[in-house]
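step=encode ok
step=design start
structure_in=
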């Protein structure tokens, strides 16, 4: 393979899907920084096993969340083209003769997640409704001809092989054989349905169990907002004229609002669509479910620290709203934790962890002794035990097993109490501890939550809740604690049930107190003189001041205090637990480095020090020296950094030639410098200036010509691009006037070496 580039560099050639070969599975491990550590393969296997379990859980969650939406779409398709209900159903009777059934699927602004949703929808429809599905994107359909090509190509592939529509080579073959028109599509559909009807009864029975007879053709516009109005109008008008011959159903993928349909299409075209609206689950609710299933559970031993979780949530909320990107970031945390932490071999289920503790080597025991949390634990013990923990590996392994068991019990107790606290705080005014449980979880991980002002204000507000809300919250807490795996909540459940019975007994007493208050109000309403009225009012005021708390208020205070005691016992921050480093990933800086890209810094590093990315020993340079083995663009960029505000283009070329031919030694022929192609240097100068323009803005470069005795045109770089001026145009021009000229691309490098050009950085 060859490229059109005139400079050295690294080029990626992506193989076509047909030529791609599946390599045999090999044993992988975490080689690199930690190749001197032990149990590398075991850590990799543990990481893989853990991620596979979490991946299955996320896929199941996404399937459950989309199930209702997909069921509604399947029902819509049944009502659209079911022959048995065509005349009986009221909905279909209202359809006009030329109306196309259309589903407006509002998916939200998380566009990166739409592809997965459409793939899942396509699988559901292919398994139960129709094999004829086409997924169209705006970038592939700039015109109606391109749209028909993609549509017919995908439908042909869909009929031959469901998964083969991704193969672009096959699409091209089918497009060349069949004329891309609606007539061709109708003829193809008729031949396909006839072939299905003429099959043997057994085959027909098998196919009818999966697909309907005369199944509809479903066309999905994945990004409806990006399609041009003309393309949509032409396709809808053409399709509406053949709706009786071709059972067509449209699905519009919408990221913003359903009103975009009426904004893009005029009334004469939108009236040809019979639109039904479908709304997917909010991406925030989707994220809450993912966090609940992956993090707020004791089933998986791996956990995220507060700062790492906050980084992932901030990227989700302030960048893309993409649940898939959140899951990928979570996967990166798992890989980084098992790669960088040698003791992550113990981040597994408790039974396996205890077995692995017995096989720990002396160096691994020393790694445990160096953990900050374990050092704090040792300092809190008596001197005899401290000596045993620091010297005896056998005694250390027994203590580690006990500490790991305590850590697993901590997780089993932490999650139910966190949910109970969230039930009490999620309905308070202004949400002092957050509306979502993930916010409360971050607050508990960051510090002792009971020492914060938000927690104190939450307790004060909870002491003012009414009885009906308290009873409902207590019932929910009892259900959570009874379904939890914690063994310490039996007494807690009994205590909460006790509170429930006491609240129910207060109903009769409340009626009696209400009768007493009514009688006292009636006494005040009796006719009396001013003196007695003033006296009775003063007595009532004094009685209210010295009034004792009612039984309900006392019971409410006791309940809030009891919840407070549970919080103080079970919601201790994770970094206060011994050996938390084994299960918690807390390196937020590494995560930011990978996920929050800094393009300017990365480009500067790649051009200034290519060894950082290529890791080629020939590219290593000492100090500020420039290696002639480096790519041309790197040499030009480093020479550019060594110059001041003004660079002479001729001197720049000579310096570039000197570096490139430097390996030939001092006895090299002087004419060898002329062998360096001027076009290569010019191309690299252009690339360097493009990099500078991206980094510093488009108005920071100014060029002017030094010598006016030029007859040939000379290339100058100004604000708009590479510009050519002849000698009469350059005569008398100042720096400002040249910089304001419009840009036109022209190159003549012969004048550069004879007549230097200066440009301002």
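sequence_out=
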């Amino acid at each position: 393979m060859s490229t059109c580039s005139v400079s050295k560099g690294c080029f990626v050639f992506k193989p076509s899907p047909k030529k791609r070969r599946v390599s045999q599975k090999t044993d992988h491990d975490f080689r690199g920084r930690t190749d001197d550590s032990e149990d590398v393969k075991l850590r990799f296997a543990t990481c893989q096993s853990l991620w596979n379990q979490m991946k299955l859980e996320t896929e199941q969650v996404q399937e459950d969340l989309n199930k209702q939406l997909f069921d509604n779409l399947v029902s819509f398709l049944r009502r659209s083209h079911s022959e048995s209900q065509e005349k009986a159903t009221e909905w279909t009777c209202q359809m006009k003769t030329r109306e196309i059934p259309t589903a407006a699927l509002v998916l939200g602004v998380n566009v990166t997640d739409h592809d997965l949703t459409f793939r899942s929808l396509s699988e559901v429809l292919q398994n139960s409704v129709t094999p004829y599905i086409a997924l169209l994107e705006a970038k592939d359909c700039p015109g109606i001809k391109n749209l028909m090509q993609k549509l017919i190509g995908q439908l042909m592939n869909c009929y031959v092989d469901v998964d083969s529509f991704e193969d672009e080579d096959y699409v091209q073959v089918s497009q060349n054989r069949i004329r891309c028109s609606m007539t061709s599509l109708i003829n193809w559909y008729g031949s396909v349905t006839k072939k299905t009807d003429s099959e043997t009864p057994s085959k027909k029975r098998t196919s009818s169990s999966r697909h309907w007879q005369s199944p509809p053709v479903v066309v999905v516009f994945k990004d409806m907002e990006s399609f041009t109005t003309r393309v949509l109008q032409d396709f809808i008008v053409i399709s509406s004229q053949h709706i009786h011959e071709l059972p067509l159903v449209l699905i519009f993928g919408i990221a913003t609002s359903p009103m975009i349909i009426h904004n893009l299409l005029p009334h004469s075209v939108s009236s040809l669509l019979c639109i039904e609206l479908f709304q997917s689950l909010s991406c925030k609710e989707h994220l809450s479910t993912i966090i609940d299933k992956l993090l707020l559970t004791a089933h998986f031993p791996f956990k995220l620290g507060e700062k790492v979780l906050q980084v992932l949530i901030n990227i989700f909320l302030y960048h893309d709203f993409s649940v898939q990107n959140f899951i990928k970031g979570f996967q990166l945390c798992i890989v980084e934790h098992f790669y960088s932490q040698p003791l992550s071999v113990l981040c597994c289920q408790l039974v396996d962890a205890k077995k692995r503790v017995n096989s720990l080597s002396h160096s691994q025991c020393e790694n445990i002794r160096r953990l900050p949390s374990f050092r704090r634990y040792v300092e809190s013990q008596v001197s005899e035990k401290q000596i045993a923990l620091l010297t005896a590996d056998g005694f250390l392994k027994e203590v580690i097993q006990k500490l790991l068991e305590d850590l697993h019990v901590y997780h089993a107790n932490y999650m139910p109490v966190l949910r109970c606290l969230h039930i009490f705080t999620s309905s308070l005014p202004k949400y002092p501890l957050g509306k979502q449980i993930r916010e409360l979880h971050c607050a508990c991980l960051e510090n002792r939550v009971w020492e914060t002002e938000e927690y104190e204000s939450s307790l004060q507000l909870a002491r003012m809740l009414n009885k009906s809300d308290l009873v409902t919250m207590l019932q929910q807490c009892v259900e959570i604690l009874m379904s939890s795996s914690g063994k310490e909540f039996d007494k807690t459940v009994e205590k909460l049930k006790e509170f429930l019975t006491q609240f129910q007994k207060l109903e009769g007493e409340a009626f009696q107190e209400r009768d007493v208050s009514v009688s006292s109000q009636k006494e005040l309403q009796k006719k009396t003189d001013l003196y007695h009225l003033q006296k009775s009012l003063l007595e009532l005021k004094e009685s209210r001041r010295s009034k004792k708390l009612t039984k309900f208020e006392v019971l409410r205070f006791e309940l809030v205090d009891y919840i407070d005691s549970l919080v103080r016992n079970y919601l201790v921050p994770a970094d206060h637990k011994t050996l938390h480093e084994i299960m918690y990933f807390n390196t937020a800086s590494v995560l930011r480095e990978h996920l929050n890209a800094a393009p300017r810094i990365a480009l500067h590093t790649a051009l200034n020090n290519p060894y950082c990315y290529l890791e080629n020993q020939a590219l290593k340079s000492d100090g500020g020296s420039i290696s002639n083995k480096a790519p041309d663009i790197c040499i030009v960029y480093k020479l550019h950094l060594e110059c001041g505000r003004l660079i002479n283009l001729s001197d720049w070329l000579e310096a570039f030639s000197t570096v490139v031919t430097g390996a030939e030694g001092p006895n090299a022929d002087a004419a060898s410098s002329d062998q360096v192609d001027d076009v290569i240097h010019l191309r690299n100068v252009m690339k360097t200036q493009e990099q500078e323009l991206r980094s510093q803005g488009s108005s920071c470069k100014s060029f002017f010509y030094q010598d006016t005795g030029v007859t040939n045109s000379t290339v100058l770089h100004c604000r708009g691009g590479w510009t050519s001026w002849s000698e009469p145009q350059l005569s008398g021009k100042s720096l400002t006037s040249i910089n304001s000229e419009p840009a036109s691309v022209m190159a003549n490098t012969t004048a550069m070496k004879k007549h230097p050009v200066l440009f301002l950085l």
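step=design ok
step=annotate ok -> The first strand starts at residue 100 and ends at 106.
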